[in-house]
Amino acid sequence: MSSNGTSPAPRWAALARDTNETKIQLAINLDGGAFPDDTDSRLIESLKAEGHASQSSKSQTISLNTGIGFLDHMLHALAKHAGWSLAIVCKGDLHIDDHHTAEDVCIALGYAFAKALGTPTGLARFGSAYAPLDEALSRAVVDLSNRPYSVIDLGLKREKIGDLSCEMIPHCLQSFAQGARVTMHVDCLRGFNDHHRAESAFKALAVAIRQATSRVAGREGEVPSTKGTLTA
């Protein structure tokens, strides 16, 4: 509840991003629950289909179909542990390679995140987390800074995981940071299985984002910055 006793506005966004390389429909709710009323009808239709990266519970709806299975898997982990409802459909030029699809999906996700977040008042602003996956351990640190910057070091050694090039995995995180206008440091500290290293990184990021975007009781309307603004 806000300070005047009313419920806070939904932190959600929907967008469609069409280029010659990719056609993306996306909807996000940072607090789980329903999607915006202006969600693209093509995306609403896709929610009726079950996929390997689909999950519905009382608090979240997740449905991902980018055409790249491992990217879907990573975004599923991100949404699940960040507490988002997230739906994405992408039709990309995968006959060329995975680059445009992976990059554009993560840019679009960043744009939608920033739009859903709105003016970052009353929030923790900073978040940090560690997440293990068996032998792998990753750390993520996030600042809702309005200064897009990322340092990503996952130490991946394979050429591909599934149909996603390993070189694209850090680039996906960088693309998200750029679109979301956040500062992110994501490091895999140890691990010998690249699937585990990547997934632990996305899970750590999810928990850090959930912390950074959490509302702080008693600080409603306050900007968590000595500058007095995080939008300029």
TrEMBL record:
<keyword id="KW-0456">Lyase</keyword>
<comment type="pathway">
    <text>Amino-acid biosynthesis; L-histidine biosynthesis; L-histidine from 5-phospho-alpha-D-ribose 1-diphosphate: step 6/9.</text>
</comment>
<protein>
    <recommendedName>
        <fullName>Imidazoleglycerol-phosphate dehydratase</fullName>
        <ecNumber>4.2.1.19</ecNumber>
    </recommendedName>
</protein>
<dbReference type="InterPro" id="IPR020568">
    <property type="entry name" value="Ribosomal_Su5_D2-typ_SF"/>
</dbReference>
<dbReference type="InterPro" id="IPR000807">
    <property type="entry name" value="ImidazoleglycerolP_deHydtase"/>
</dbReference>
<dbReference type="InterPro" id="IPR038494">
    <property type="entry name" value="IGPD_sf"/>
</dbReference>
<keyword id="KW-0028">Amino-acid biosynthesis</keyword>
<keyword id="KW-0368">Histidine biosynthesis</keyword>
<dbReference type="GO" id="GO:0000105">
    <property type="term" value="P:L-histidine biosynthetic process"/>
</dbReference>
<dbReference type="Pfam" id="PF00475">
    <property type="entry name" value="IGPD"/>
</dbReference>
<dbReference type="GO" id="GO:0004424">
    <property type="term" value="F:imidazoleglycerol-phosphate dehydratase activity"/>
</dbReference>
<dbReference type="InterPro" id="IPR020565">
    <property type="entry name" value="ImidazoleglycerP_deHydtase_CS"/>
</dbReference>
<comment type="similarity">
    <text>Belongs to the imidazoleglycerol-phosphate dehydratase family.</text>
</comment>
